[in-house]
Each structure stands twice: as C-alpha cells, then as structure tokens.
Amino acid sequence: MTVFGSGDLPPARNIAAQTGGQASLDGDGTGACLDWPRPESGSFIYQFRPLSSMRNPNNTTPIAIEAVPATGRWRGARFLYSVNALAQLPPDTGREVAFAGRSNAGKSSALNLLTGQRRLARVSKTPGRTQLINFFLVEPDRYLVDLPGYGYAQVPDSIRRHWGELLERYLRGRAALRGLLLLMDIRHPLTEMDRQLLDGCAFRQLPTHILLTKADKLSRGAALAALAQLKRGLAADYPGASAQLFSALTRQGIDEAHTRLDGWLGDIGENSENALALVR
Questions:
Q1: Is 187 exposed, middle or buried (0-12, 13-18, 19+ CB in 10 A)?
Q2: Is the distance from CB of 74 to CB of 138 less than 8 angstroms?
Q3: What gap in Å lies between CA 29 and CA 207, rounded to an integer?
C-alpha cells in the first residue's frame, strides 16, 4: 500500500537516483512511472499514482506575506463544507493549504489552535474520525483543507478506494493547493506512510512544512534532538521540506506555523465573485 503511488511504484526519493536525476515517464509524458518492483509495505488509506501531471503549474511568482495580524486573520476562519466527490470541490481558484498526517497526529487540535477557535475542527479520542475533505474559509478565496488521516480509520475497502481516488485527484491536479502542512507525532516521526506522502509532494514539487506535534510530551532537550534528527533526514531525502516543533497544549510553535501559512496563502487581493458568493 502507498500514501502516494500505487503498489507498483517505489518511493519518489529513490526515483532520481535510479533514473539519473529525473523520473522516467511513458513516451507521451502522461503515463505512470515505469513498472517498478512492488514494495513490501502492504496497503495504506491513500493510494496515489505520481503522474507527470502532478507537477505544479508553472507559476514562480513569490507569494507575499499578508500584513494582517495572525490573530485577526485566523479568528475569522469558519467551516465551509465537506467534500466527498470531485464535483463538490469549490472552484479551483485562490489558494489553499492542506493539513495531512496520521489519524492520531493531532490535526484537529492544530487547526483549532492556529485559528484561535476551540471547536472549528472536531477533536475526537477515536483516531480516523475525519473521513471527508473538509474546507475552512479563512478569507475570500483562501482556504484551509483538512484531509482524512491515514493509518487507523476502520472503514470498508470500498470506502478506502473511494478516498484514494478522491485524494489522488485533489492532490495531483489542484492548482489552488499551494502547500501541505504535514503533522507528525514527535514520538513517532517520519513513518513509512509519512515518507510516501513526502515522496508524492516532492514529485509534484509541492511545498511541505512538518509540524512535530505533541512536543510537550518530551523534555526540551529531547524535543530539540528529535527536531534536529528529523531535519537531517529531510536534508538527505527531502531537501525542499521544512520542520518545526509544535504543541497544541502549550501553544509552542504557533507563530512560526502562522508565518508559514501566511506565506502560502498570501494577500487576498481583490475579492473574486466566487469568493464573495461563498462569504455571503
């Protein structure tokens, strides 16, 4: 099983080494990567084939950081709707940041802390309760997107396949997606599922920032050591990814995370008609 990539594809971190620095595609440039040996990792919730179309649109214009204070910007966030089919996705305009991670990594708690709201995202003691793509409107044409957690949800295979198809299409082709916030429990960082998600992000060239959650569970020294070890691993396999410590309990790392989110979402500029309609 894979987070990104079907079972016949290796981790993207190995593709460059095996193909001279560039992933090999079918002759027309639209097919899947070559038929790699099947990994022995079983099967995950997300199944994602990294096609050539995963690459981001050719837009290298830097995103300016919004000057609005974080508290004012984020406290206005509100739940918009849940998506269970491609036809339900909002127009592919504006900018979005997706939250991903294992089902017990603390995504809901992080969303609530970063928006300064206690109940924006539902927090449950049962892992895997997020089973839809949930959109939260921050400002006109600016969204936070909560993706289903992977690893724990007990659901039928048919639902897993449906999730895989929906998430594949969203993560592969969503032009509005400007960054991924990947949450990892600091006590269990960089699992194989996390790596496979990072593989897909690296192949698409999607900016990724890691929150090492539950940093309060370790002493300061141990937490810093875990962060340093993670950064060494990222530098070797995912040089484009960044990481920080985070705790929903102590609010550690909230300013750094806000800065990253602001950089990805940027200024709202002029309100589009679609965004105004959603606000109304």
A1: middle
A2: yes
A3: 23
The half-sphere exposure of 55 on its side-chain side, counting CA atoms within 13 A, is: 10
Confidence (pLDDT) at 179: 97
- Has residue 131 got a pLDDT over 80? no
Structure tokens at 117: 């709201």
Question: What 3-state class would DSSP assign to 164?
Answer: helix
Distance separating alpha carbons of residues 173 and 181, to the nearest angstrom? 18
C-beta separation of 195 from 116 below 8 A:
no
Q: How far is CA 262 from the centre of its chain?
A: 15
**CB 243 within 8 Å of CB 208:** no
Say how far apart CA 122 and CA 114 lie, in whole Å.
14
Q: What is the DSSP string of 42-109?
A: ---S--B---GGGSPPS--PPPPPP-S-HHHHHHT-EEEEEESSGGGSPPS-SEEEEEEEBTTS-HHH
Buried b (16+ CB within 10 A) or exposed e, 211-231: bbbbbbebeeeebeebbeebe
133-139 and 78-83 strand pairing: antiparallel
- Beta-bridge partner residues of 200: none
The arrangement of secondary structure in 12-279, i.e. its CATH architecture, is 3-Layer(aba) Sandwich (3.40)
Predicted confidence band of residue 237 (pLDDT cuts 50, 70, 90): very high
